[in-house]
Amino acid sequence: MKTLARATQAIHIGVGKDSATGAISYPIYPSATYRHPGVGQSTGFDYSRSGNPTRQTLEEGLAVLEGGVRGLAFSSGMAALTTLFLHFRTGDHIIASEDIYGGTYRLLTLVLGNLGLHISYVPTSDVAAVQAAMQPNTRALLVETPGNPLMGISDLAALGTLCRKHELMFIVDNTFMTPMLQRPFEFGADVVVHSATKYLGGHNDVCAGVLVARTAELGERLYFLQNSIGAVLSPQDCWLLLRSLKTLSLRMERHNQNAMQIAQWLEKHPAVKAVHYPGLPSHPQHALAQSQASGFGGMLSFRVRSAQMARKVLERLTLISFAESLGGVETLMTLPDIQTHGDIPREQKDRLGIDESLLRLSVGIEDVADIIADLEQAFAAAERDA
Ligand SMILES: *Cc1c(COP(=O)(O)O)cnc(C)c1O
Predict the structure, then answer these.
(1) For residue 30, how far is its CA from the centre of ligand 1 (angstroms)?
(2) 368-385 and 248-268 are packed helices; what angle lies between their axes, rounded to 10 degrees?
(3) Global pTM?
(4) Do residue 232 and residue 279 come from a single domain?
């Protein structure tokens, strides 16, 4: 399977693998437990938390797509991250991107911080700042690139080299890009994380998380934690993800195209003060984004004249939903300051530039003219109201 293109690999995960039936769509195995053929013998499956055929098929496929050796599927992105961070011990220090998903910040600071993990948030787009934050007890670097919601880009190759030199576990949350656009293992990542609720699922109908490990040894350790902690993905949801992955490549192509056109349209609109999209030449790290990813993705954020205008735009949307989350086929808009990043302290948000005039758009795969028409009428109505 390794020699096929990724689009083909994604479509063929599990196809025909069920030898009993030859099923094209790999079956859902709901069985919680399995009959042993004899004492000391196993079919390879004993108990569904420890191993399930549908989950295993998904996990093997995810490892191939990311270019790692071991994939693990969890009941949410947060479940995947929690499992990963329980690898560390009291007193360990972790460096994380400061423009990170708000839920990851909450987990690291308000949950794992109480268990004695020390966390530093730094602008990981600045390699020197990462180096300066290192301590003798630093064990890992967690990076999201593009950042959320301001779309800052971190240099994966430079950070990979730094982590290798200092023996840090290099963790990349690849949710925004997916393996179709960005391949963190090629830049030295040790673990790739996904909220599969987003692009991998792609239809706003499943909540799931993924870890992929670079080595068999680390994969075995993460599997031990997955089985011990137990936040596994159900067989039904594994099947939904298997189905979603078949169209991932096509969906990402359209997300890229639509987001680029909308970013260009927003940049020209008089009510928009700034647009943050790595695909725009005006993005300060446009060249870096281009060098380490094969597309710019479907996420962007933009600033309007005032907090009041942002609220009015949200109220006036008709096709686009005012909703949290991202990465689905439907276009969604959110106000990060009070929603996705509500738990991040005010001074950190002020430093980053997250306030109530900043809107985040998850560009869907509808006809782009319809998305732009909805933005146009919402802006016009918001201006009239003001
Ligand atoms: C949503 C998200 C998560 C958390 O995943 P859930 O599936 O919501 O638990 C983690 N990282 C990023 C970048 C996300 O967007």
Answers:
(1) 26
(2) 40
(3) 0.97
(4) no
